[in-house]
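Homework help board

Subject: predicted structure for assignment chain

Our instructor gave us this sequence and asked us to write out the predicted structure in token form, then describe one feature. I got the tokens but I'm not sure how to describe them. Can anyone check?
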Amino acid sequence: MKNFMKNILVLAMVFATLSSNATEKTSLNNEENGKTTLILKDVVQGEKLIIKDNFGVVLYNEILLKSGEYTKTFDLTTLPDGNYIFELDKQAQIKVYPFTVASNTVKFDKENLKVIFKPKVEYKNNAIIVRALNADMSPSKVELLYNVTDSTFETIYSENISNTSLIAKEFKILEKEKEEYKVKVTLNGRTFTTSINI
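My token output:
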């Protein structure tokens, strides 16, 4: 019964991801002057907009200064032909919007919009609890590090995880071991690090 409920939760999270992708209010409009206007609905102040090339090199980085609708015009035709992404880095997720540049034409690939949910890490009842949705079941890794000195952390737990869409780990902390810890979760080719001070 416990596994059944866990599977239902995973399915609900996956459907929520698909629903989020389907209703995404984003548009990339090519103008007559060759420039491209990006419109993002319902952004929140403090989120980050990033443009990366196919190798992960950051070409543009902006912290959004106000909530609501974001509109900005870019001259993307100056980029070399190739594949690129806009990333909207939100509090709990990263939305990835792929686009291509070919012969001074910019094409927004809405079918391949991707949502990466950031891992949730919390300290509760003398335990560090880690949860992450890995909808595409990509190889992932969870590490727990302990603060040995002011600038040195030692890995006390490391596990490679595969063939699962839900990562869930709980680390019990002894009362006398209350220090600073770091949790690293690697999934979808990204590493998320959370510091926990106990």
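Reply (TA_rk): Your tokens look well-formed. For the description, you could write something like this. The domain at 118-197 is CATH 2.60.40.730 (Immunoglobulin-like). That's the kind of observation they're looking for.
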